[in-house]
Design a protein that fits this description.
With 288 residues, this protein is an alpha/beta fold. It has a domain of 187 residues: Rossmann fold (3-Layer(aba) Sandwich), CATH 3.40.50.150. It is 32% helix and 21% strand. A 7-stranded mixed beta sheet has the order 3-2-1-4-5-7-6, sandwiched between helices. Helix 6 links the parallel strand 4 and strand 5. Helix 6 packs across helix 8. The longest helix is centred in the first third of the chain and has 13 residues. The chain is globular and about 70 Å long. The termini are close together.
């Protein structure tokens, strides 16, 4: 990976901490994608007893999963402590000792602070795009899954925010970069998952002006967190050029913002053992 495109996790955490109060009001796409992921569970035969929501945000996904699997234990994990606090139900003090809410952990998907083989399902809705090392993230998810456990996720593909990326007049890293669906599928296989299923769809949100696009992104904490992001102020002339470039995409009175969403699910296979009980481990060099 080009080091300029690496994500600064401190910026990511700070952005989502600040967006905790505004996130739910603007996360229309995230909610829609989460509902589509839930519908895909209709075709999966699994009754998980323990579920990890990796990148749980304000807790909507965890609440939906709890309704679908009421007997399952749910663990919400997010990089942002403010998001986790926002996810906590507001209950009277006398009800709190008797509530069956999810457990919460503030942590990084690439370094899961969980025991191996402790989860039956790992669920992650639009969070993996903030990871720097997809191989490591998938490896960690595979580690915490039990054999026959399932990983279900969504993330953004490379066409996400293509209009905004093309509108900037320079070639600096103004917009985060996203992995291609085929690279994501390869990363699943390299992490040891089996039977991966991948597909993609594009959503187009429409806005009245460029300021509304940027305001929406700010409200959900989607700031440019790349290490190679421009550090100086964006001048008036550069801003004017960017707005004019973005205006060239206007159709039927609105400005589009494209989001390519990649969906995937895969299983953790059972270990293959020799007659003496030892495991077969295969090593393969990743193509450069």
């Amino acid at each position: 990976m080009n080091p300029d495109y690496a994500t600064d996790k401190r910026i990511v955490r700070r952005s989502f901490d600040r967006a905790a109060d505004t996130y739910d009001g603007s996360a229309v796409l995230q909610q829609e994608v989460g509902e589509r992921m839930l519908s895909r569970l209709d075709y999966v035969k699994i009754e998980p007893s323990r579920i990890l929501d990796a990148g749980s945000g304000t807790g909507r996904g965890a609440r939906d999963l709890q309704k679908r699997y009421p007997d399952a234990g749910l663990l919400e994990l997010d990089l942002s402590l403010a998001m986790l606090k926002k996810a906590r139900p507001e209950l009277p003090w006398w009800k709190k000792p008797f509530s069956r809410g999810s457990l919460q952990v503030c942590g990084d998907i690439e370094r899961l602070p969980l025991g191996s083989s402790s989860m039956d399902m790992v669920w992650s809705n639009l969070a993996l795009q903030w990871c720097n090392d997809l191989d490591r993230a998938f490896s960690e998810m595979g580690r915490v899954l039990k054999p026959k456990g399932i990983l279900m996720f969504s993330t953004f593909g490379p066409d996400t925010l293509k209009e905004l990326r093309q509108a900037f007049p320079d070639r600096l890293a103004h917009v985060n970069r996203f992995s291609d669906m085929h690279d994501i599928g390869d990363a699943l296989l390299h992490a040891g998952f089996s039977a991966p299923v991948m597909d993609m769809e594009c959503f187009t949100l429409t806005y009245n002006d460029v300021a509304a696009v940027l305001k929406d992104l700010k409200a959900i904490g989607a700031h440019n967190a790349m290490l190679g992001r421009p550090k100086g102020l964006f001048g008036k002339s550069a801003w004017k050029a960017m707005v004019e470039n973005y205006e060239s995409f206007r159709r039927e009175g609105f400005l589009p913002a494209t989001f390519e969403v990649v969906y995937g699910h895969a299983w953790k296979p059972e270990p293959r053992n020799l007659p003496d009980g030892s495991s077969i481990v295969r090593f393969a060099e990743r193509p450069k």
